[in-house]
Amino acid sequence: MTITAAFVKTLTNPSIVSAITSTIFIILLGFFLRKKNVFSEQFGKTLAKVTLTVAIPALALNSFMAPIDGKTLSEGMSVLIWGFLIIIIFLIVAPFLYIKLPKSERDVMGILTTFGSTTFFGIPIVGAVLGPKGIMYSSIFNIGYRVFLYSYAYIKMSGLKMELKNVKKMLLNPVVIATFLGLILWLIQDYVPHVTVPTFVKGIIDQSAGTHSVAFFRIDQTALWLWTPLNYLAQLASPLAWLSIGVTLGSLSFKQAAGSKISWYYGFNKVILVPLVTLVLAGGLSALGILPMSFVAIATMVIMMATPTATVASAYAISFNRNAILASNASLISTVLAVIMMPIWIALLQVINSTGLLK
């Protein structure tokens, strides 16, 4: 298949186009409602808190309610390793992108370039485009990300030693709890007591499919009364996150941020260069058989790394007075650019997949 044919196929795929337009339209809706003062700035923060505390943890946990097989397990471990490796690579390399800046600014921009809003911005988009398996891989990928965000980034930005309260903050985060709980349950499901259940298709018993055996904690099969409300909460993750992003954009001064050249340079690095490097390295390692991964796994990681500035990393800069204005401007510019570039990345990934370059 030629690249032109693959591009046409991608842009005429209703599910892909719908995922892209849903992201853009709901973000624009949040932006419009904020500008009209229908939503306050505080309401946007409340939406974000609900998303991170309830919806995304439900989304992460539910993604692990799936059968385990050798290929998925192998890919999951590759994603876990790559999640640590890519963060280490960028922590070392990213500061050199700002070599002309003073060291204090260079360190801050290096941290901001490495850590994106993978949980709040990335996972909802991955779920919309790549489905449950993508959500599973994104949750596994985030393990390494969170380890470094709450340890190295904290120490680097604060200038202090790692504190116990920050370790507790990391371990008691609802998304972290849901991710580790889901991952453990997914990994041990072949070694725990099983029960025989009828086969469900979209929540309805399929009489023709008979019965099968699953781990007792596979609530998607054994306890629909629990799975269904969790699924409703999980489905809120994307629209709530996108609305909140729109409200945030509507609350900030784009004119002020746009006057900072370094913010535009940072935005280019964050949403174009970083995911491009991720795509090349992950695709290359997979092609060489070093860390073999499918298209879904690689696309998940590219989307996660194409996200704008991580809220926590930006908060570090503001809290510890580490070039707070620069960090705020960079965060806004990268968010605007990410909204523009994300549909392009999704389309590009689908085109690459259609040409067979990623297996």
In short:
By secondary structure, the protein is mainly α. Helices cover 74% and strands 4% of the residues. Strand 2 and strand 3 form a beta hairpin.
Describe this entry's structure for a reader:
It is built from 17 helices and four strands. The protein has 359 residues and is mainly α. The chain has a single domain (3-355), classed as Na+/H+ antiporter like fold. Strands 1-4 form a two-stranded antiparallel sheet. Helix 3 (41-63) packs antiparallel against helix 12 and helix 6 (118-149) packs across helix 12 (237-251). The longest helix is centred in the middle third of the chain and has 32 residues, at 118-149. It is globular. InterPro entries: Mem_transp_PIN-like. One of its GO terms (biological process) is transmembrane transport. It comes from Fructilactobacillus cliffordii. It is a multi-pass membrane protein.
